[in-house]
Amino acid sequence: MKFRKLVIENYKSFQFPTEIVFPEGKNSRSIFLIGGMNGAGKTSIMEAVTYCLYGAKVDEIYRNINRRERAKGNANVTFELVMEMDDNSELIVKRSWTAGAASDPRPRDLTERLVVVRDGRRVSVQSQEIWQDFIRAAIPPGITQFFFFDGEKIQEIAADDHSEVRLKSSLEAALGIQYINKLAADIAYIKQEERKGFVAISDDDLEFKQSELKRERSKLQRKRKDREELQSELDGFKARMEEAKKRFQAAFNTEPDSREVMREQEKKRVQTANRLAQVESEIRALCEKALPFSIAGKLFAGIRRQIEAERESASGEAIRENAASLAKRIVRVVEEPEPIYTERLSPERMAELERRIFRLLKEGEPGAGQDKVLDLSDRDAARVLNRMDSLESSDIFLLKVLVDEARGLEGQLRQLEGLGQVGGLTPSEGALFDELQADIEGCSTQIGRKSEQLRLLEEEILRLEKRIGEIEVEIEKLYEKHDISKEKADFIGECDAIASVLNQFIVRLRKNKVQMLQEKTFEMYRLLSSRSGLIKDIIIDDKTYEIRITDRNGHEIRKSAMSAGEKEVFAVSLLWGLAQTSELKLPIIVDTPLSRLDSTHRDNIVNNYFPNAGDQVVILSTDTEIDTDYYRALKPRLSGAAILEFDQRQELTTFRGGYFWEGSHG
Prior knowledge:
Layout: E1 2-9, E2 18-21, E3 30-36, H1 42-54, H2 58-63, H3 67-71, E4 77-84, E5 90-98, E6 111-118, E7 121-122, H4 128-138, H5 141-144, E8 148-150, H6 151-158, H7 168-175, H8 177-195, H9 203-252, H10 259-295, H11 300-321, H12 323-335, H13 347-363, H14 378-393, H15 399-419, H16 427-481, H17 486-528, E9 535-540, E10 547-551, E11 556-557, H18 564-582, E12 588-591, H19 599-609, E13 616-621, H20 628-634, E14 640-647, E15 652-657
Parallel strand pairs: 3-13, 3-14, 8-12, 12-13
Antiparallel strand pairs: 1-2, 1-4, 4-5, 5-6, 6-7, 9-10, 10-11, 14-15
Helix pairs in contact: 6-18, 7-18, 8-17, 9-16, 10-15, 11-14, 12-13, 17-18
């Protein structure tokens, strides 16, 4: 894998999009030198690569947003890394953080976004998590510290005699042992899960369940046989009844009725006859009680009118008979108690008024004379009117309804009586009729009884089948839990065997990898150390990873007794050995590696480490580390050089080709 381009935008002093193109070298190997004074942004390049690949916490990103842009409300940070993979495909990883439309953005407003493009095709958002896993698998985060490191990392490893022990997990990741350990732990977990609930079941338990299953299956077999026999009997009765029905149809040219139907018809006939008798009785009672009066029912309106007319005629007659006294009383009313006229009438006028009133009362209304047909007193007239009202509201007028109902009942009764007789049968025909009717009814009874028995038997069969299924499941579970279950025992045995093989493999792999690490570390150390002739061997413990350095006499040389320069070249050698042992082909990025080294060790690093560190080496250096002499020494091997120029007034870093004292350099 090789880096082809890195873009940094709005991060620390990289205010504007800054594009760093990594040049290709000859023979697929390149050394790219990037110069920069302290604070110019060399560390930012290391961080940009790491954050682009693996992401970062929003607080860390927010804290390092370019101050000028953040003051403007711009909280968008973008990293883009273009890589050439080992299979020559191109992989572009672009990771950005944006605060959206927030006017005063805060860390919580930042949203991370990952875009992956492979061979020109953008990966869908749904696959983002998968591609993050792909990136982590291709460039494991635990190992990159051995490929991307700075002077602080070198000093951390060089700090004391046992600093490498603290790197155990990272060392195992670099050696490939970490994944085997994870696999062994997963197998142990699977084995543990398989053993959960693995209760020992005795043979007696299994035998008891098997016996119960055998009994239930035997019952089921008997029930199924009974069902077959019962079904056969039922079919026989159905066929016999069909045959009897056909004979009945042929003999009497009508469908046979069951005795139940006949009894129902007889019951209906009796009910109809009883109702008819009841209706006839009600009709007789009504006729006996009020029939004469009901006949005159149509005359009631005329009688009422005659009574009212005679009452009015009698009233007029009474007025005429008492006309003189009434006239006198009316005239007195006009004068007493107070005259109702404005002028008082003279006696003559009063007498004239009385005569006129008398004549009026005596004559009465024209045509008021009425013949007295009924000539009833008021009391008798009231009695007659009351009696007519009683008759009109009585049940006598239900007579027509009852008569209509009686006619309908008579028709129903004739029909039912006709159904009860099959048209004048001879004695022999009557006997045949009774015989076939009895046979049909007998078969019908048996069919009903057998059908019910069959239904109950079907329910019993279903219950037995369900119970047998439950017992079979119980037996299967017992076998699963049985301590001698072959499948379980074999699986657990396989887990043990695999775990044993993995443990053996880990031991051998660790020894082989540690042996390779020893060789590679010692190989580079001999090239870099000024005391390499005094050191006979570097021994790394394959369990604790503790490192022992021995001299030619076999005496241990403690790291604490070594000079600062020796410690640092040892740390660089160990980092190189780890990178080589991991067998990953990743770019090497080294930030300020020479700051604490003396001239001898610097010479060795420049001449022996940088050219052999990897296929792609990126050196981040100040002008005092890779100075003019070292630059001159490195130049034939460089594929390119560039510089990070920092404007302190604008706090802005720009990237241009050419090292400190040179112009643009390709």
